């Protein structure tokens, strides 16, 4: 038991070996006796148990130290791994940012390239259109040149002929040719003067036509102004007629209301005059003149009542006097309502005739 030994142990981290240090047994106090058997020293069971417990405690301490060492190593490796992962993540983030910037730059470059391509296509289209226009203009100029050349050949046949030195052999033929050219020039000048004169005459006729047209336009404008003035006058007359018609309607309405009030007043006077006398007259409600005649006849101050004495009339003499005055006022109002009719109102005439005997 005094030698070193390795003890295999199975732990949670895997199989491992524990180094057992040599030990020396020290007897516990109070146990100095040893049992011997067959000449060998034999320990007691309690001592063996204590020894085993000590060995187990040492093994556990060794395992704990080994686990702590492994845990520290593992934590260090994890810290290194985490640091590496952080560095890798930072590199990946940088790569992602660089790639995003690259994509943005690529998109910008692509957009610029597309814009330049569109501008180039538009410029090419403009150049093609300009080239086509120039080709058409060139063709038109060539045709115009051909027409001018034909006109020149038709006007001056000598332009297409060989030079005079090769055409004429002597001076006389040359002079004759010049005389012919002078005659042709005189004819052309005369024709040009005739054309100029015709042009002047045409301009004169055009000015005459313009003056005539201007005069007609002025006449039409004056007629239009007169018609517009007539239209405005007619419009004013229509407005005046409408205002007169409205005034006549309002006046007729007022007269109608006043006539209705007069009829109502006459009806009230009729009832007031005939009620105290208990006169039963068959008079229609719409017959205002008959009602006024009835009131005048029923009055004690009227015609045919002089020299008579009636107790009822004596009692109602004051009220009938008021009725007679009201009848006179109504007759005056009727005269105002009908000023165009000759003579006084019939009711007023009857009132005056019947009221001639008033004291």
UniProtKB/TrEMBL annotation:
Source domain of life: Eukaryota
Keyword Coiled coil (UniProt): yes
Keyword terms: Coiled coil
Annotated DUF4200 domain residues: 50-156
InterPro entries noted in UniProt: CFAP_domain-containing, DUF4200
Segments forming a coiled coil: 68-151
UniProt keyword annotation of S-adenosyl-L-methionine present: no
Pfam families with a match to the protein in the record: DUF4200
A cellular component term, taken from the record's GO annotations: cytoskeleton
Record-given protein name: DUF4200 domain-containing protein
């Amino acid at each position: 038991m005094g030698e070193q030994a390795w003890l295999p142990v199975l732990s949670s981290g895997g199989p491992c070996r524990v180094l057992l240090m040599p030990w020396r047994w020290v007897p516990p106090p109070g146990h100095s006796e040893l049992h011997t058997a067959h000449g060998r020293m034999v320990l007691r069971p309690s001592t063996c148990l204590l020894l085993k417990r000590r060995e187990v405690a040492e093994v556990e301490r060794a395992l704990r130290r080994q686990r702590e060492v492994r845990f520290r190593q593992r934590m260090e490796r994890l810290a290194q791994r985490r640091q590496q992962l952080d560095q890798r993540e930072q590199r990946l983030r940088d790569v992602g940012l660089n790639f995003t910037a690259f994509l943005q730059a690529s998109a910008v470059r692509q957009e610029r390239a597309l814009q330049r391509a569109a501008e180039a296509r538009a410029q090419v289209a403009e150049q093609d259109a300009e080239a086509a226009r120039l080709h058409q203009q060139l063709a038109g100029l060539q045709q115009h040149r051909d027409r001018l050349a034909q006109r020149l050949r038709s006007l001056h046949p000598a332009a297409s002929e060989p030079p005079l030195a090769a055409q004429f052999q002597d001076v006389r033929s040359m002079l004759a040719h010049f005389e012919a050219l002078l005659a042709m020039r005189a004819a052309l000048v005369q024709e040009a003067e005739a054309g100029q004169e015709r042009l002047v005459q045409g301009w004169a006729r055009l000015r005459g036509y313009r003056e005539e047209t201007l005069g007609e336009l002025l006449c039409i404008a004056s007629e239009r102004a007169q018609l517009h003035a007539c239209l405005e006058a007619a419009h004013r007359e229509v407005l005046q007629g409408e205002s007169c018609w409205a005034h006549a309607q309002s006046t007729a309405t007022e007269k109608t209301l006043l006539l209705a009030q007069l009829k109502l007043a006459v009806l009230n006077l009729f009832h007031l005059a005939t009620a105290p006398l208990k006169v039963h007259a068959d008079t229609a409600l719409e017959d205002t003149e008959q009602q006024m005649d009835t009131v005048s006849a029923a009055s004690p101050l009227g015609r045919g009542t002089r020299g008579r004495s009636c107790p009822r009339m004596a009692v109602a003499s004051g009220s009938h006097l008021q009725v007679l005055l009201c009848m006179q006022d109504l007759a005056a109002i009727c005269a105002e309502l009908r000023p165009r009719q000759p003579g006084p109102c019939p009711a007023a005439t009857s009132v005056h005739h019947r009221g001639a005997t008033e004291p």
